[in-house]
Design brief:
With 270 residues, the protein is an alpha/beta fold. Helix content is 40%, strand content 16%. The protein has one domain: Rossmann fold, CATH 3.40.50. It has an 8-stranded mixed sheet, with helices on both faces. Helix 1 crosses helix 11 and helix 7 packs parallel to helix 9. It starts with 6 loop residues before the first strand and ends with a helix. The model has no long low-confidence stretch (mean pLDDT 95). This is AAA family ATPase. InterPro entries: AAA_dom, DNA_Partitioning_ATPase, P-loop_NTPase.
Amino acid sequence: MPKSKSKRVAGGNNKGGVGKSGWVANVAAALADEGCKVLVVDVDPQANLSRRMGRPYRKEKPLVTTAEVIKSGEPGVAADAIVPCGWGGIYAQRIDIIPSRFDLENRISEAAVIGARGRLARALQGADDGYDFTLFDCQPSLGHLTQVALAAARYAVALVEPEYDGVEGAVRFRDFVADEVNRTEMGNPELTFAAAVPSMVDGRLAAHAHHVQSLPSIFGADKVWDSIPARSVVKDAADEGLPLAELGSRSAEMREVYKAAAQRMIKEFA
């Protein structure tokens, strides 16, 4: 399969509620702030990322979504589903999205079909060559839809909520990606587990500090990136479907956090 000119990164965890969608949305914005052109692909039927980025499903004005893209799987067909994100300013110019909706769940029943896991990778052939980064928001599982995203990605990043279940879910995600048999069966032997990113970290909690300190021994010190702290402004932006920049000065700290994350991605995934 031809290599994409875009650097494709999948964010995942086998557990939900760990900050995956928030990380993808905010890193996309930070990459755009750095001058990058970004394509975001929502591969979760909950479609939280699509709503947060201004592209919720609307019955009266439906968009082509990942459900149709994956159902087709024809080379390059993803180009028909790409739309600008719903944010304003430079984000409207630099961030595009393939949105999701609830009926993406229907693709799970096709898991046993030969070649099903490679449909998104085929659909993206040539469609994302004009982007610096393609970011995938995975479903919180290791099932078919996550495998479809991983089959299309080059790098996998685990978002790690510093709770027991969040760490365990990230380990399962890491181990799945690291397994050579899994990568081969997905048709993507070059897929690399790139990073574990502590997310939603509450510095007031001793348990969070304990789990964050344990991550280098679990994932390797070189794989553990800087923590994403838990801040109400991130939730406020997500609830309102706005980029952090729209929330003014109170978002300054978190914009710097995501700026550092974006700069590391640009460096690491050169």
